[in-house]
Amino acid sequence: MFIFFACQHGAESFLKSEMKAVVPSAKFAFSRAGFVTFRTDESFSAASLNQLPLTFARTRGISVGRTDKEHATDDARVDHVLSALADVDPAIVSSASQESSLVSSIDQIHVWQRDSKIPGDDGFEPGRTERADAVGHMIRERINVDSKIGINRIAKSGQLVLDCALVEPDQWWFGYHIAESVSTRWPGGVYSLRLPEHAVSRAYLKMEEAIRWSQLPLQAGDTCVEIGSSPGGSCQALLDRGMNVIGIDPAEMHESVLAHKHFTHRRARAADLKRSEFSETKWLFSDSNVAPNNTLDSVEHIVQNRRVNMHGLVLTLKLMQPELAEQIPAYIERVKKWGYEYVRIRQLAFNRREVCMIAMKSRSFRRRRPKTRKP
Ligand SMILES: C[S@@+](CC[C@H](N)C(=O)[O-])C[C@H]1O[C@@H](n2cnc3c(N)ncnc32)[C@H](O)[C@@H]1O
Predict the structure, then answer these.
(1) End-to-end distance of the chain based on CA atoms, in angstroms?
(2) By Cβ atoms counted within 10 A, which residue in 222, 253, 325, 347 is the most buried?
């Protein structure tokens, strides 16, 4: 059988290396920029697929088939998708299923196009497209006109999702997954966001995605610090949640961020500040354009001080050379040694050549819906 993944445009080789380490028996089968498939043995299930710890997998699914040139129109492609799915035994997904076919068990349809560029290049941002939504509607109409099946909506945990990746105009890969963790609930593994007009940099998007993915229990009124805060897009995402934000950066902040009453700029490098400056701070964010070990050095220096009690960390680790991706397990171990029991890492959809690490003192700090307050 085949499994498929969406990843960032250009991150296919990272995903292949991870798969080699995590599932050595899986054989690479096919890839295009932003989309990779592997052949696995038949015992592989949707549940085991969800468990794979893969930094570079944006989303994942069990493949049922694909369309190609012989399916020359959208109608023919939709027919092929549904007839192939109709042949799948629903017991594959749930032994308790009463349904006669997998199609009748579908709760959500997720259709996505692979990324055409690296996020942020030439204005490209990942997320929903009109074309993907239109294909979702065509599939749903063919299943049942009155169907309540959602199209490119966030799935609930436990729901069966029909995935359809528009890899080429005539080549759609389709299959299914069971929604479970936060990112497996998002269509194509992307929480669709638009950059707000007031945002001064696209870092706003990656901060929003990091907060939603990590489910950090940020509260309006909490104090947080960002190392590498200029010009200020990510600070704005925190300010928009009603947080008090200290930005540390030797470079200038955008004037609109400086003018915010809950923002303080410390125009310095992180290492130049006294540790006592962080004693009231609960959350630490870092987005410095330095190598990952330099980011970790700066953060370690702060969090290892006994007067500092950071509940959670959100660190952007810049993969300045591709080889740095191999160090990811070592970065995780390093952060765990500081007393952060729960550490996860993911290449966010809105990341560029970087990954996002979150660390919490305890997993119980997570919660489902972070409270927000309008600024
Ligand atoms: C990618 S930019 C940050 C973007 C910012 N987060 C935003 O939302 O617009 C990286 C920043 O890291 C800053 N930086 C690099 N080394 C630093 C250090 N040791 N301490 C604080 N800032 C640093 C740079 O000055 C630069 O402004």
Answers:
(1) 50
(2) 347
Query: Does the beta carbon of 276 lie inside 6 Å of ligand 1?
Result: no
CB of 250 sitting under 6 A from ligand 1: yes
- Mean per-residue pLDDT for 152-165? 96
For residue 363, count other CB atoms closer than 10 A to its CB: 9
> Measured between alpha carbons, how far is 369 from 355 in angstroms, rounded to an integer?
23
207 and 187 Cβ atoms separated by less than 8 Å: no
On the question of pLDDT at 90 being above 90, the answer is: no
Nearest CA to ligand 1 atom 23: 228
* CB neighbour list of residue 219: distance below 8 Å, 6 or more residues apart: 243, 370, 371
pLDDT in tens, 356-365: 999 998 766 5
**Whether the CB of 201 sits within 6 Å of ligand 1:** yes
Confidence class for position 89, pLDDT limits 50, 70, 90: confident
pLDDT digits (tens, 9 = 90+) for 124-133: 999 999 999 9
How far is Cα of residue 273 from the mean position of the Cα atoms in its chain? 32
Does this model's pTM top 0.70? My answer is: yes
Buried b (16+ CB within 10 A) or exposed e, 273-301: beeeebeebbbbbbbbebbbeebbebbee
Residue ID of nearest Cα to ligand 1 atom 18: 269
Residue 257 predicted with pLDDT over 60: yes
- Kindly state if the Cβ of 249 falls inside 6 Å of ligand 1: yes
Average pLDDT (19-29) is 95
Give the H or E element holding residue 356.
strand 354-360
33-36 own/partner pairs: CB under 8 Å, 24+ apart: 33/9, 33/114, 33/115, 34/6, 34/7, 34/8, 34/9, 34/10, 34/114, 34/115, 34/116, 35/4, 35/5, 35/6, 35/7, 35/114, 35/165, 35/167, 35/173, 36/4, 36/5, 36/7, 36/12
Check whether 371 has a pLDDT greater than 70.
no
Whether 353 lines ligand 1, by a CB cut-off of 6 Å, is: no
Question: Which 3 state secondary structure label does DSSP give 47?
Answer: helix
